[in-house]
Amino acid sequence: MSSRQISEEVRARVRIQAKNQCGYCRSLQKYVLGVLEIEHIIPKALGGTDDEENLWLSCRLCNSFKGIQTHGQDPIMNRKAKLFNPRQQKWSRHFAWTNNDTHIMGQTACGRATVLALQLNNAYAVTVRQAWVSVGWHPPTEV
Predict the structure, then answer these.
(1) What is the pTM assigned to this prediction?
(2) What is the pLDDT of residues 67-122, one digit of tens each?
(3) Fewer C-beta neighbours within 10 Å, C or N terminus of the chain?
(4) Spatial separation of the C-alpha atoms in residues 133 and 140, rounded to whole Å
(5) Helices (H), ranges, the chain
(6) How far is CA 96 from each of CA 22, 55, 115, 141, rounded to the nearest angstrom?
(7) CA distance 61 to 71
(8) Which is nearest to 112 in space by CA: 142, 70, 83?
(9) 23: closest CA among 89, 107, 98, 105?
């Protein structure tokens, strides 16, 4: 993503709309090492734009695993499914916290495909969530 093309005003609005939290793994900015990134829901490489409606916050891990993907494989239905759109869809409809709130479980085809495609339960993320749970910082509350 080219940060020069997105104005500071749009960045600030997206950050407020996203409540300073990754749209995928729900990591809060105040606990993440590094600034949450403005990501393109539909990647520019696939025709997405810099319009505010196509932008959301993402942590570096989720954004790097997502790359230019817009679809992933649902392991239960064994078919392709659209990835979760944090701007248009409600997180709690597609995902739930499991394993003492350290793992994200997909509850729909979209959720399951997103968990796999973005590797939402990678070892690093789970380890960090375990530490956050132990000090009462996790899971974030749904707003």
Answers:
(1) 0.94
(2) 999 999 999 999 999 999 999 999 999 999 999 999 999 999 999 999 999 999 99
(3) C
(4) 10
(5) 8-17, 60-66, 91-94, 109-117, 123-134
(6) 15, 23, 11, 12
(7) 18
(8) 83
(9) 89
